[in-house]
Amino acid sequence: MDDKSDAHLRVKPVPSSFDQPTASSADEPDLPRHVAIIMDGNGRWAKQRGRPRPVGHQAGFTATRDIVEASARRGIEALTLFAFSSENWRRPETEVGLLMDLFMRGLNSEVGKLSDNNVRISFIGERAAFKSNLQEEMLRAEQLTADNTGLRLAVAVNYGGRWDIVNAARTLAVDVQEGRLSVDQIDADTFGARISLANVPDPDLFIRTGGEKRISNYLMWHLAYTELYFTDVFWPDFSDEELGRALEFFKGRQRRFGRTGEQISGA
Ligand code: IPE
Ligand code: IPE
Ligand code: MG
Predict the structure, then answer these.
(1) Which helix H or strand E contains 123, and what residues bound it?
(2) Cα–Cα distance, 267 to 264 (Å, whole number)
């Protein structure tokens, strides 16, 4: 392929139907039910190739599509992807504009296929900051896929973990103020019921691509007991094979949740 052409910017055709899941976390206990990913490294991927950052974002979009499909095929129940953080507004206006554009075009081009493949889509984050047409598209995607029973795909946009926690606290405060809840009833369950992804089990596996070992204000509440996997691979290069490596890492973990190893292994 001529690397100087705009071929990177074109979306490659994909089959309209995913392969059926080959497993499910119900019959494969070593498979995480919920995977949460920070898709990082698009800009550096492009830079490494002497290309502008938008080329990296376009390649990242293609990788996202492939990983959604791979996750569904592998029988993962829930996948949460960090697409745009509440801090990403600090980027140059042109980059923010491009990301919004890519997001809008992605929604338009992918939602039908995702719905046909039984994927249920939702968005987490503060939506009010987005243009109204984008907000409408998000709602339309959620409504269109609401009754689907396959992969639960959550896309975090203008999302911040602290925003999420503050928002839950505020909702709790209103409930107390209006007499729906007493202060004594505030605990991790009542709090957790008011935070994003309340109906989804907490992530079992967290993946961050791009080499950085930080949470960057992602799911601060939800990651309390999540297994953390970091890889230097840039997001556009994160393939099904790389996902397989992360799943292998997960298989090797002993999740103790505060207990001793002997209690868990029964030794
Ligand atoms: C992740 O890649 C995409 C978004 C944050 C939207 P980056 O754009 O952060 O890529 P790097 O970290 O600069 O390489
Ligand atoms: C985190 O990546 C946000 C997303 C992937 C959407 P960043 O690239 O924004 O994170 P920092 O700024 O390096 O921590
Ligand atoms: Mg980054």
Answers:
(1) strand 120-124
(2) 8
Of all protein residues, the one whose alpha carbon is nearest to atom 7 of ligand 2 is 40
Structure tokens at 90: 């600090």
Cα separation of 42 and 51, whole Å?
A: 11
Q: How far is the CA of 40 from the centre of ligand 3 (A)?
A: 5
Give the per-residue pLDDT at 18. 73
* Ligand 1 pocket, Cβ-based, cut-off 6 angstroms: 39-44, 84, 88, 99, 210
Q: Which two tokens stand for residue 18?
A: 């995913």
Residues of the chain by 3-state class (helix, strand, coil), percent to 5? 45, 15, 40
The atom of ligand 2 lying closest to the CA of 83 is 6
Catalytic residues: 40, 88
The domains located in the chain, with CATH, are 32-265 (3.40.1180.10)
pLDDT at position 82 over 70: yes
Ligand that comes closest to the CA of residue 218:
2
Question: pTM for this structure?
Answer: 0.92
Q: Can you name the residues that pair with 79 across neighbouring β-strands?
A: 35, 153
